[in-house]
Amino acid sequence: MEGEKNKLENLLHNNLMKKRDRILHDLQEVSVADRRQKLDQYQTELEQEDEKLVNFKEQTKGSNVMEFMWKDIQLILKNIFRLEYFCLQKCLCVLFVFFRARCST
Question: pTM for the complete prediction?
Answer without folding.
Answer: 0.41
